[in-house]
């Protein structure tokens, strides 16, 4: 029997989406148009197709227009940048999501940075990362921002806590570290070259696992009472944390699925609606 309290990401996401739906309806009432999210998908990777479909279905449910832009996997970086630039210049599009990963021959960073900052509702551009790092106004990376919402919903104050982030990707590990630092956590970033990873994890009050390897973080590494956030999703609905063993030691833990995933999508759509209000220079009602 697990001792840890489960963090219900589905419930947290539902609250975010209900408020987002109300704001989307208010935007449509005031402008005559729905907030619009353009989803760009290069190729037909099955997982990416599924993710985009989920996001488009969620848009439809909460009053957000979804404009799907499918592109062939033979597209060049230059052509992809051109397509994204066109969306950035289209006033009827308020947010742009480039589904990642893109095919290996594409310069993903160049593609991400073609998204205008005001429409970067997925928080993937270099400008958005700088905003997170320096505390400027901008859009946060959706998964890290969703994780912060989970911590807030369960009254986990990062201030003074030792947080260990396992993973250093540009759209998860690094921005996660910046957001935790901004909330006064002491942050250790671990990765594939880290020596004696278990010792770092054993000292962590908050563990964020984002390595993309099933059950990589062993339950025995978890400090008793720690908060464990599993941002991994692997084949067979398995996260990056050895869940059953970790749950006997953690104080709070996210399940997979039903933890981080729902809040990621919720933050994406929330930021899309926020972007729509900002671009129309309409103050959103609280």
From TrEMBL:
Keyword Transcription regulation: no
Catalytic activity of the protein: (6R)-5,10-methylene-5,6,7,8-tetrahydrofolate + NADP(+) = (6R)-5,10-methenyltetrahydrofolate + NADPH; (6R)-5,10-methenyltetrahydrofolate + H2O = (6R)-10-formyltetrahydrofolate + H(+)
Cited function: Catalyzes the oxidation of 5,10-methylenetetrahydrofolate to 5,10-methenyltetrahydrofolate and then the hydrolysis of 5,10-methenyltetrahydrofolate to 10-formyltetrahydrofolate.
One Pfam family this sequence matches: THF_DHG_CYH
Pathway assignment: One-carbon metabolism; tetrahydrofolate interconversion
Lineage, highest ranks first: Bacteria, Bacillati, Actinomycetota, Actinomycetes, Pseudonocardiales
Gene3D superfamilies linked to this entry: Leucine Dehydrogenase, chain A, domain 1, NAD(P)-binding Rossmann-like Domain
Residue ranges of domain Tetrahydrofolate dehydrogenase/cyclohydrolase NAD(P)-binding in the record: 141-279
Native source species: Saccharopolyspora oryzae
Documented EC number(s): 1.5.1.5, 3.5.4.9
Protein name: Bifunctional protein FolD
Keywords: Amino-acid biosynthesis, Histidine biosynthesis, Hydrolase, Methionine biosynthesis, Multifunctional enzyme, NADP, One-carbon metabolism, Oxidoreductase, Purine biosynthesis
Record domain Tetrahydrofolate dehydrogenase/cyclohydrolase catalytic: where: 7-122
Assembly, per entry: Homodimer.
Source domain of life: Bacteria
Sequence positions that bind NADP(+): 167-169
Family, per entry: Belongs to the tetrahydrofolate dehydrogenase/cyclohydrolase family.
């Amino acid at each position: 029997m697990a001792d840890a309290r489960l963090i219900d990401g589905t419930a947290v996401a539902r609250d975010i989406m209900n408020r987002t739906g109300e704001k989307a309806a208010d935007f449509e009432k005031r402008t005559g148009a729905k907030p619009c999210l353009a989803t760009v998908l290069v190729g037909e990777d099955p997982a990416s197709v599924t993710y985009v479909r989920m996001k488009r279905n969620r848009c439809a449910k909460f009053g957000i227009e979804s404009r799907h832009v499918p592109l062939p996997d033979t597209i060049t970086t230059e052509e992809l940048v051109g397509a994204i630039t066109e969306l950035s210049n289209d006033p009827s599009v308020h947010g742009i999501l480039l589904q990642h990963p893109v095919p290996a021959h594409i310069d993903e960073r160049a593609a991400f940075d073609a998204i205008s900052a005001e429409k970067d509702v997925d928080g993937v551009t270099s400008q958005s990362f700088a905003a997170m790092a320096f505390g400027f106004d901008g859009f946060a990376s959706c998964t890290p921002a969703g994780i912060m919402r989970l911590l807030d919903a369960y009254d986990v104050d990062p201030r003074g806590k030792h947080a260990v982030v396992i993973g250093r990707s540009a759209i998860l590990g690094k921005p996660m570290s910046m957001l935790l630092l901004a909330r006064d956590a002491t942050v250790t970033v671990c990765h594939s070259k880290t020596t004696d990873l278990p010792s770092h994890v054993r000292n962590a009050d908050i563990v964020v696992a984002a390595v993309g390897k099933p059950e990589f973080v062993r339950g025995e590494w978890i400090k008793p009472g720690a908060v464990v956030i599993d941002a991994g999703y692997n084949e067979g609905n398995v996260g990056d944390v050895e869940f059953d063993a970790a749950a006997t030691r953690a104080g709070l833990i996210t399940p997979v699925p039903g933890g981080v995933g729902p809040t990621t999508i919720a933050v994406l759509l929330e930021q899309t609606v926020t972007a729509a209000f900002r671009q129309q220079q309409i103050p959103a009602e609280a």
